[in-house]
């Protein structure tokens, strides 16, 4: 694995070795700093071999190996991307060129899980300012994930391309297997891939179960490509089925999710200096979740709930690229996507009960952008772009059994009488500068204005419900149709130091980044004023007691009135530092590490902290490689987090640390060079701990108290096997 600069020099091959607990990372500089995490164990370079991994179940976990990255974990398959304190839809996730939508309003089918980790080819994260060409909304950065497929060759002869992987983990008796079979030549490529994953409830310290964390998922994909005479076309069909899977941090568990996608891209080299690029996708997904098929059903049959949701989405992109404009490359394009969401809650014990939670909700985005990349001065690389985006949102009328009389009827009627159509016009600007001071030092500066329109949950949740895009704070939220777009003003600065030698050390690298982001109209829950909803305080309190008969999940013994929040625009700021570095000693030893610190503060009204912000955390890895073997020991930890959000009743978390060990064997014999076999132990000392960004427990029949954070897995023995031909 290598970290490389296009400007004629390279960082150490092991630069990002520590970034994967299981798989190595690659930081790659195209025109600006990006980090690429490879989806399988690979050689990090000539001085060390990165040991292999426990086949990370959810690809979202790979972000923990990225400086500034983290994962809001709500279930084994429900990991929501976080980068520098922003998460959810604020972080753009591009999967095989598709801006996929979550089928459920709580992101149970999170976009980061769209590709199982067994079939991930690469995940790219932008550490600087994200270019405007990458996505329609990139306020919180962008993650670009690509799945395995057959690749074109350089000859007319057909060549097979095969990949297989298998893994087992003891902590949950989990198994996964996957593979890709393809054939290709210089003009054609074809492939088929599949994967299967299943596991039981995982265990934490002293072999105690975390209830309802079992899972089952299958994925299938078929694709082909063609290129000739300046034309290149590719297409793929993907089917994913998730069976019963627990989400202990949410009020329901996954019964099933079915997702079908089709994507295609076409490129045409019109001349030596002009290229046309186009892409499109279509998505159809439906989803059923319940509060009774996995966890113990409510004792009162009237409290049983089943939620059926669906989304139909499509997207497009077309761009012209000129490679000789002002000494650089100019890209001008248009893009957009359209999505329609529905959600209906029912009770299998009462055919008359229903809630049209979301009815024919539309969130359509249309964009146009221009971006220039080049070297206006010697040693200086610039990426400058501007984007315009129009966001159209609307929703159909709603109804439900709770709206028969009283406060529920008032909320329904006010929503149906409101002007639900909303039009947002936003402009993004991104500037990224990289100056090569010398062959060993690169200076980086990024400046940006980025925007993000409200989500459909934030606008159109007409009842106080836990429908939050996976916020999982145990509170209920009411929507606000009149929300404004978030507007972020961002600066990122740092440098990349690369030294071939430093005393007795070789391949030394150090890559820090400091960032500051001021967000005007940041969207967060605020205390509800019943008058804003057309209700008296008594009506509101009585209605909340009906919605929350067992009290507030976040604070079971507390007042239900304090459990409800309404989405509102406030001002906020986020700032911090993240870095990675490492060095080699001799031919066999290597040290790599990363550290992340993020601070999020609410600036409007009473001073407060932003919700679900990870404390100072990091990891250090020592690797020893010899012959065909590599052994590594890794120390991972985080400080306590006491800067928590009062409005969310967020609980403080203690500091923690764990030690992980791995051994990888990669034979150099000619006929088995593609084989990688790894053994390992995570959390060697079986420590009990919980990431601060883990969700809170919602399962009442668990040893973990309702409202407490779900703990991370305990000691885990694992084995993985990969083979590439």
TrEMBL record:
<dbReference type="GO" id="GO:0009279">
    <property type="term" value="C:cell outer membrane"/>
</dbReference>
<feature type="domain" description="TonB-dependent receptor-like beta-barrel">
    <location>
        <begin position="205"/>
        <end position="684"/>
    </location>
</feature>
<protein>
    <submittedName>
        <fullName>Iron complex outermembrane recepter protein</fullName>
    </submittedName>
</protein>
<dbReference type="GO" id="GO:0015344">
    <property type="term" value="F:siderophore uptake transmembrane transporter activity"/>
</dbReference>
<feature type="signal peptide">
    <location>
        <begin position="1"/>
        <end position="27"/>
    </location>
</feature>
<dbReference type="InterPro" id="IPR010917">
    <property type="entry name" value="TonB_rcpt_CS"/>
</dbReference>
<feature type="domain" description="TonB-dependent receptor plug">
    <location>
        <begin position="55"/>
        <end position="142"/>
    </location>
</feature>
<dbReference type="Pfam" id="PF07715">
    <property type="entry name" value="Plug"/>
</dbReference>
<keyword id="KW-0732">Signal</keyword>
<dbReference type="InterPro" id="IPR039426">
    <property type="entry name" value="TonB-dep_rcpt-like"/>
</dbReference>
<dbReference type="InterPro" id="IPR012910">
    <property type="entry name" value="Plug_dom"/>
</dbReference>
<keyword id="KW-0798">TonB box</keyword>
<feature type="short sequence motif" description="TonB C-terminal box">
    <location>
        <begin position="708"/>
        <end position="725"/>
    </location>
</feature>
<dbReference type="InterPro" id="IPR037066">
    <property type="entry name" value="Plug_dom_sf"/>
</dbReference>
<dbReference type="Pfam" id="PF00593">
    <property type="entry name" value="TonB_dep_Rec_b-barrel"/>
</dbReference>
<keyword id="KW-1134">Transmembrane beta strand</keyword>
<dbReference type="InterPro" id="IPR036942">
    <property type="entry name" value="Beta-barrel_TonB_sf"/>
</dbReference>
<keyword id="KW-0998">Cell outer membrane</keyword>
<keyword id="KW-0472">Membrane</keyword>
<keyword id="KW-0813">Transport</keyword>
<comment type="similarity">
    <text>Belongs to the TonB-dependent receptor family.</text>
</comment>
<dbReference type="GO" id="GO:0044718">
    <property type="term" value="P:siderophore transmembrane transport"/>
</dbReference>
<dbReference type="InterPro" id="IPR000531">
    <property type="entry name" value="Beta-barrel_TonB"/>
</dbReference>
<keyword id="KW-0812">Transmembrane</keyword>
């Amino acid at each position: 694995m290598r970290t490389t600069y296009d400007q004629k020099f390279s960082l150490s091959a092991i630069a990002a070795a520590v970034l994967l607990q299981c798989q190595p990372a690659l930081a790659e500089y195209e025109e600006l700093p990006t980090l690429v995490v490879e989806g399988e164990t690979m050689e990090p370079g000539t001085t060390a071999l990165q040991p292999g991994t426990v086949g990370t179940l959810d690809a979202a976990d790979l972000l923990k190996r990225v400086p500034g990255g983290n994962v809001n974990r709500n279930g084994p398959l429900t990991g929501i991307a976080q980068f520098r304190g922003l998460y959810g839809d604020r972080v753009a996730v591009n999967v095989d060129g598709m801006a996929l939508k979550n089928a459920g309003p709580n992101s149970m089918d999170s976009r980061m899980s769209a590709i199982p980790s067994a079939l991930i080819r690469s995940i790219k994260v932008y550490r600087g300012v994200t270019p405007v060409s990458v996505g329609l909304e990139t306020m919180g950065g962008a993650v670009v994930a690509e799945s395995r497929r057959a690749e074109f060759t350089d000859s007319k002869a057909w060549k097979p391309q095969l990949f297989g992987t298998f893994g087992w983990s003891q902590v949950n008796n989990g198994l996964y297997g996957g593979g890709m079979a393809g054939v290709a030549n210089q003009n054609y490529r074809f492939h088929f891939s599949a994967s299967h994953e299943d596991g039981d409830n995982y265990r934490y310290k002293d072999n105690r179960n975390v209830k309802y964390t079992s899972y089952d998922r299958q994925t299938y994909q078929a694709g082909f490509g063609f290129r000739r005479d300046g034309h290149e076309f590719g297409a793929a069909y993907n089917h994913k089925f998730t069976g019963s899977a627990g989400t202990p941090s949410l009020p329901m568990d996954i019964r099933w999710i079915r997702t079908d996608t089709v994507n295609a891209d076409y490129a045409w080299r019109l001349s030596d200096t002009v290229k046309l690029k186009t892409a499109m996708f279509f998505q159809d997904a439906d989803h059923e979740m319940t509060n009774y098929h996995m966890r113990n059903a409510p004792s009162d049959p009237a409290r049983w709930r089943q939620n059926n949701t669906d989304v139909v989405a499509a997207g497009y992109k077309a761009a012209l690229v000129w490679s000789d404009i002002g000494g650089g490359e100019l890209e001008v394009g248009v893009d957009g996507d359209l999505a329609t969401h529905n959600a209906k809650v029912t009770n299998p014990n009462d055919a008359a009960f229903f809630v049209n939670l979301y009815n024919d909700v539309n969130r359509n985005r249309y964009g146009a952008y221009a971006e220039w990349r080049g070297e206006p001065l010697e040693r200086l690389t610039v990426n400058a772009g501007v984007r315009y985006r129009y966001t159209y949102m609307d929703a159909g009328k709603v109804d439900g059994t709770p709206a028969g009389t009283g406060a529920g009827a008032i909320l329904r009627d006010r929503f149906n009488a409101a002007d639900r159509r909303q039009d947002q016009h936003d402009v993004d600007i991104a500037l990224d500068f990289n100056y090569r001071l010398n062959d060993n030092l690169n200076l980086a500066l990024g400046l940006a204005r980025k925007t993000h329109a409200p989500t459909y949950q934030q606008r159109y949740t007409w009842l106080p419900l836990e429908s939050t895009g996976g916020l999982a704070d145990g509170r209920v939220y009411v929507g606000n149709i009149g929300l404004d777009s978030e507007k972020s003003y961002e600066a990122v600065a740092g440098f990349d130091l690369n030294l071939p030698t430093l005393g007795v050390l070789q391949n030394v690298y150090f890559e820090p980044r400091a960032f500051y982001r001021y967000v005007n109209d940041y969207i967060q829950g605020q205390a509800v004023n019943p008058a804003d909803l057309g209700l008296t305080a008594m009506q509101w309190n009585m209605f909340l007691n009906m919605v929350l008969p067992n009290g507030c999940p976040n604070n079971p013994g507390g007042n239900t009135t304090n459990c409800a929040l309404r989405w509102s625009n406030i001002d906020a700021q986020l700032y911090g530092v993240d870095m990675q570095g490492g060095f080699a000693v001799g031919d066999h030893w290597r040290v790599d590490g990363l550290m992340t610190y993020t601070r999020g503060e609410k600036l409007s009204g009473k001073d407060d902290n932003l919700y679900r912000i990870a404390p100072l955390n990091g990891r250090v890895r020592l690797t020893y490689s010899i012959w065909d073997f590599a052994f590594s020991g890794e120390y991972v930890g985080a400080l306590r987090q006491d800067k928590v959000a009062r409005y969310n009743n967020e609980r403080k978390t203690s500091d923690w640390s764990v030690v992980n060990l791995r051994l990888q064997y990669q034979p150099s014999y000619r006929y088995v060079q593609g084989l990688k076999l790894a053994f390992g132990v995570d959390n060697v000392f079986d420590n009990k701990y919980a990431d601060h960004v883990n969700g809170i427990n919602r399962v009442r029949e668990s040893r973990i108290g309702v409202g407490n954070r779900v703990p991370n897995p305990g000691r885990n023995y694992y084995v993985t096997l990969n083979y590439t031909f």
